[in-house]
Amino acid sequence: MERPLFVTAPLMRGSDVADVQLRLRQLGFYRGEIDGIYGPSTKNAVAAFQRCVDVVADGMVTGPLWDLLAIGVATSSGTPLPRPPGKVWLEVNMDKLTLTVFSDEEPYKTYPVAIGKWDTPTQVGEFAVIDKGYNPGGPFGTRWIGLNVPWGAYGIHGTNRPWSIGYPASAGCIRMLNQDVEELFEWVEVGTRVVITGSEAEYQLVVPVERRLKPGTTGQDVRYVQYCLRQLGFDTGPLDGWFGERMKKAVIALQKYYNLPVTGEVGTNELYVLGLR
Q1: What is the CATH number of the domain that holds 252?
Q2: For 150-164, 199-213, 214-228, which range has the lowest pLDDT when averaged over its residues?
Q3: Taking phi first (over 0 means left), then psi (-120 to 50 degrees means alpha), and beta for anything else, what does residue 138 get?
Q4: Which residue in the list 157, 161, 175, 223 is annotated as catalytic?
């Protein structure tokens, strides 16, 4: 459900405001900073656009105005293709702002995407599809592909803001053009692997580890320990923030290699060996 946008006290803030500012800048109505704050300059730009498209110039953004803002923007990025012949997995490259579909190990098709803003970043790691949905509507467009990120609701979805594709514009999800995500939706299944990478990936992985980690634990600290174990050659499975059976086996292998008590858990000794203490 879209919230209406207008000047309030305190001023409204959010990625939806930033999306409006971005589109109005593209159209030449807004020259200010894309800061996600709905202030007087944004209201004036909205009113100017409304006058241009011959609707009431009240400076408010409601549902119909999103459709007017999207006029003239492409709804797909290329020619549709048949279903990939091999096993499908996905790679999101946050540097290139692309999502590539792989068929077995060969790139099959690449789409442009929008990713999270600097203050609401897309999560790097190796995740899996956990659910799929039709027509979530509004800013989520026509399809939803949910990911098993354990510390939030993240996914790949369409958008009613197609002008944002190719920018860091979302609250953390991967945005696609609606026709693109509709094609992708038919190719992926629950369990499909999704790898999210970028030059800032290692920096984002680094978080404090301030608790004992054990099977069943989830979180960004688990993902960081998975990364550190992998750097030492221990196979934890995907970097997904879930302390599962494969991570437990990797921890046990680490403990045996360094003659530590075999517990299958990560405490002070293990963190010291990993260079985290």
Answers
A1: 1.10.101.10
A2: 199-213
A3: left
A4: 157
**Structural domain boundaries enclosing 103:** 88-201
Identify whether 240 is part of a domain: yes
Concatenate the DSSP letters of all residues of the chain into one string: -PPPB---SSPPBSHHHHHHHHHHHHTTS--S---SB--HHHHHHHHHHHHHTTS---S-B-HHHHHHHHTTS-S-SS---PPPSS-EEEEEETTTTEEEEEETTEEEEEEE-BEE-TTSPPPPEEEEEEEEEE---GGGTTEEEEE--TTS--EEE--S-GGGTTSEEESSSEE--HHHHHHHHHH--TT-EEEEE-TTHHHHH-----S-B-TT-BSHHHHHHHHHHHHTT----SSSSB--HHHHHHHHHHHHHTT----SSB-HHHHHHTT--
pLDDT in tens, 145-191: 999 999 999 999 999 999 999 999 999 999 999 999 999 999 999 99
Selecting among 173, 213, 228, 274, the annotated active-site residue is 173
Per-residue model confidence (pLDDT) at position 202: 73
Give catalytic status of residue 173 as yes or no: yes
Rounded Cα distance, 67 and 58, in Å: 17
Tell me what the mean pLDDT of segment 253-276 comes to: 97
The tens digit of pLDDT for each residue in 6-26 reads 999 999 999 999 999 999 999
Distance CA 4, CA 12 (A): 10
**Does 143 fall in a domain?**
yes
Give me the number of domains the chain comprises. 3
52 is known as an active-site residue:
no
8 within a domain of the structure (yes/no) = no
What pLDDT digit, counting tens, does each position of 62-93 carry? 989 999 999 999 888 889 999 999 999 999 99
